[in-house]
Amino acid sequence: MSLTIAFDLDGTLIDSVPHIHHGVCAALEEMALPTLDRETVQGFVGRGLPILLQQVLDHIGAPQSHHAELTRRTMFHYVNTPSDPASVYPQARETLIALRDAGHRLTLCTNKPYEATRSALRDTGLDGLFEVVIGGDSLPTRKPNPNMLFAALDGATRALYVGDSETDAETAQAAGVPFLLFTEGYRKSPVEALPHTARFTAYDELPKLVAQLA
User: Fold this and answer.
1) Helix 17-30 with 49-60: angle, nearest 10 deg
2) Which of 34, 83, 181, 183 has an alpha carbon 20 to 30 Å from 66's alpha carbon atom?
3) Angle 153-159-165 from CA coordinates, rounded to 5°
């Protein structure tokens, strides 16, 4: 039986930290502000760009009055610097195609801004695989508020959510949707600390999990 399967993007389908790190640091340099290493930026990923940039400014000791300008500059680099096709996790694209061809409906639910999401999907060859794309600025609220996931599922009653982080686990739990945890993403906590229905470490494991749950 077919399911609607919503996916997170950053840390779930693509390793986007290098791209995010580049955009943030390019913007900081333009504003003559200190830059950050990749690991620090990765620690801020998960709750959307506005919160990420708030944390960046706090970390470097800069006033939040810089937030609007830092956002504008980061978004420019975010959208205009192509994402690396190699950032897609191994077998992720092939697995999405296999799930779609098996009759499942695929959607996307990410806190990444919508315009940047569309650019990333296009650059990485994932564009066209999702019937619904909900970005971090598509609604007034962001994950872990469940409204984004409800919008991505578009009324489906048989559904799954696939993500990699504490935010994703919290979102699925709030929505009452079974959660499949990709363990190789950006989570900060041990796997056992995140509520999940099942977990996988490689994308060739996912079709079997979906078939069991379907």
Assistant:
1) 50
2) 83
3) 80
- 143: Cα within 13 Å, side-chain hemisphere: 35
Tell me the per-residue pLDDT of 67-124, one tens digit each, with 9 for 90 and over: 999 999 999 998 888 999 999 999 999 999 999 999 999 999 999 989 999 999 999 9
Helical pair 49-60 and 67-80, crossing angle rounded to 10 deg: 120
Residue at 153: amino acid letter: L
> What's phi and psi for 133, nearest 5 deg?
-125, 115
Containing 167, the helix (H) or strand (E) segment is helix 166-175
Alpha-carbon 168 to chain mean position? 9
Element (H, E) at 160: strand 159-163
Q: Which amino acid is at 55?
A: Q
> Measuring CA to CA, which residue among 175, 199, 178 is closest to residue 187?
199
pLDDT, residue 78, reads 85
pTM (global) more than 0.70: yes
